[in-house]
Amino acid sequence: MHRRTFVRGSSIALTGVVAGCLGAGDDGDGDGDGSDGDGDSSLPTVAGSLSVVDSPTAVTVRDTVEFDLELTNDGDDDHDVAVSVDVGDERREEVVTVAAGDSETATVGVDTDYESVERGGISLGENEWTVTANLEDGTESGTLAVQDAPVEWYQPDEEKICPVCNMLTEMYEGWHAQATHADGSRIEFCSLGCAVEYWIHPTDHDATDYDGKHEGTIEDELVTIWAPDFTDVDTDPDDGSSAAHPGWEAFIDMREGYFVLDSRTFQKYTTPMPGGSPVCFAEYDDAVAYVDEWDELTEDDIVELEDLADVEAGKRYRANYQA
Fold first, then answer.
1. Domains of the chain by range and CATH?
2. Which of 223, 242, 262, 300 could staple 270 via S-S, CB 3.0–4.6 A?
């Protein structure tokens, strides 16, 4: 038994003829003459079996899903075995040569990267996967849960523009935030105030120019806001900028965090917009400690993600940017 590993950095789905099935100068018509033809270029079905030895049931977005496979050739001749791995609408294809009466193990990787999730055919939540090979017993399937996480934003060759206020999002790193949609599309904002307004009124703000959105993204199917924990924000950094934060790796999932609806952050700190922004905390006790510092705040100003619409937080911070 031998082992092959195919873990690709590329996330472009392969379609059509399997790479490696055609010999040099072959055009796929089966006659080897390099001319166009109507012959069947697919590999024949081989006596044998496919076994998915190991596959994850869950993966964090941006990680690689690896399928460990065992391919067995029960025939009397060596054969090329074409393997296809489909996760959602993304496909990876490889060809493995298996000797007569022998087995090969192989690992095929599918990336849940920017091209596959934000722009491709894999979504957050449950995705169906299928592994097939040109073997008599050559199909297995299952499900894979892609879990959300904060990620480094990526928008090729363009500035990152906040869809609510049209400001550049990187100017105020201590305040910017992300929001994810159910299909994995991700939007970045200059500040939490804009993220809150988008969360409440997503269909009112044009984010169609973002490369990070599927063409069919349903704007109001939102999952969460990723935000900086205010306990990690330096409001007076040495470089003289408005505020500094450890970065996107330290963003917190606001499904599990707390907003403090401070209406005077624009007076207390240098914030991106005149309307200011709420401040966020991973721990409730840290939110309480913050409100205790200011006479105008009470624990009633501490809310969760599901409460934002009820307290009209968008109007509080971005009234001038509402439809």
1. 2-147 (2.60.40.10), 169-321 (no CATH)
2. 242
